[in-house]
């Protein structure tokens, strides 16, 4: 028996989410798919567009076997704590594999960055602080700091050699929001010291921040924007 876990907000549930459930079931030959979902409030503190009961019915009708609600303290947390909370809960339920959507489903890269950030070099931390002082957001500061660090210390850093033994890190991967969250899932598994397979899936359709609500696989951001501006479903 194989059980797949998904950590999500479903704000709102859309075609891309249905595609993920159906495809991961086929890809991994899964017997069950368990979803750990944010409830009525989501990251950054906003209310969910759709209430938790409706989101649950949507997920169950589109292929999920069980939906559990993430505690509000997890749903409202940073990406790091959101990932750690979700991974911990699904692991305790006995899942065999965690899947997540991302822009670059390259496990060597995602796990490499997770390992590097888990055992962060003090020198790299100083690079981030300098970027933050210049007014960069944290994701941008980390990406630019890593690029500088890689350019200056690629041949001498034991942290890089340990995290990326068989590949060269690609800092551009750090610019994509779902890649960033995927790295946090991988890092959570390392920090919790659990044995858990992961199976990242490439996002299809429009990008995370795209505003086109007419596409078959529009982003959740586009759907929310359309509903807020027109008070109508796309």
Strand order of the largest sheet: 3-2-1-4-5
How many DSSP E strands? 5
Number of helical regions: 10
Mean pLDDT: 91
Low-confidence stretches: none
What proportion of the residues is helical, as a percent range? 40-55%
Radius of gyration: 18 Å
Fill in the keyword field for this structure:
234 residues; single chain; 10 helices; five-stranded parallel β-sheet; 5 strands
How is this structure best described in words?
By secondary structure, this protein is α/β, with parallel strands linked by helices. 49% of the residues lie in helices and 12% in strands. The protein contains ten helices and five strands. The protein has helices at 15-27, 52-61, 72-75, 79-92, 107-118, 122-133, 138-153, 158-163, 177-192, 220-230, and strands at 3-8, 32-37, 66-69, 97-102, 197-202. It has a five-stranded parallel β-sheet with strand order 3-2-1-4-5, sandwiched between helices. The protein is globular, with a radius of gyration of 18 Å. The mean pLDDT is 91.
What is the secondary structure topology, with strand pairs?
Elements: E1 3-8, H1 15-27, E2 32-37, H2 52-61, E3 66-69, H3 72-75, H4 79-92, E4 97-102, H5 107-118, H6 122-133, H7 138-153, H8 158-163, H9 177-192, E5 197-202, H10 220-230
Parallel strand pairs: 1-2, 1-4, 2-3, 4-5
Give a short overview.
This protein has 234 residues and is of the alpha/beta class.
